[in-house]
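Note to self: keep these together.
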Amino acid sequence: MLKNHYLRNVVFFLLFLPFNFPVSVSAHEGHDHDNETIITIAKRTYIHFQSVLMGYQYIYSYMVKGGANEISSLAQDVIDSATLGIQTEPDGPGQHMMRHILEGAESLKNAKNVSERQEAFASISDALFPFFKLWPNQLMRSRLKICRCKSGHQWLQPDNCPTACPYSLNKSSNCLTIEETIY
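Structure:
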């Protein structure tokens, strides 16, 4: 009798176990990523991800300063790092993120005017945000903060720099309101 009672409890536990944990759906090519998608990257990809972030920060600083000539070569550095990241990252959300970074960097390299550069920079930023929103400790580790201006643009910037909007066309008057998210 005790043996049947124990066996019945184990069966019920195993039956109801899947209902107690949230189901994570991994996204792949052709699916939209939303806030529920868990983005992770492999350890061997992390070094390439850090190189992408360094290139992104340099691009940010040149966009704030208005320097267009250097952005193309910096975009090539991001292209190279993202390509290596795609090669080392297994299929899944991490590789999908690196592919979006690569597409944005290629657009940035080929941008002909300020508007195209801003659009390409925004696409790189959009590819990075889901990772940092799920792993805010990585935001701290990378010494970055997420900023948003009143016009709705978002970007990552070093947390030790004065906040400046890379989308502001008039560099002498930055956005009046910039919200910072520091974790």
